[in-house]
Amino acid sequence: MSFADRPSRERTARHERLRIIDHQFQEHRKRSVLKAYLIRFAVIVALLAFIGFAYAAWVVSNVQRILTSHKGVKEAKKVLVANAGDEPINILLLGADIRKNDPGRSDTIMILRIDPAKKRAVLLSIPRDSRVEIPGHGRTKINAAFSYGGAKLTIETVSQLTGLEFNHYAVVDMMGFIHIVDALGGIDIDVEKRIRNATFHYNFEPGLQHMDGKHALSYVRFRHDAEGDFGRIRRQQQFLKAIADRFLRIEAIPQYPRIANIAARYLETDMSITEMISLARLLASLPKENLETGMLPGTPKSIGGVSYVLLDEAKMKVILETVRKETRLPRANEMIDPSTIRLRVFNGTGTNGLARAGANYARDLGFRVIGAGDADACTYATTVIVYASGKQDAARAAQKALGFGEVKPPTDAQLKLLRGADVGLILGFDAENVESIRSRLP
Question: Reduced to 3 states, what is the DSSP secondary structure of residue 62?
Answer without folding.
Answer: helix
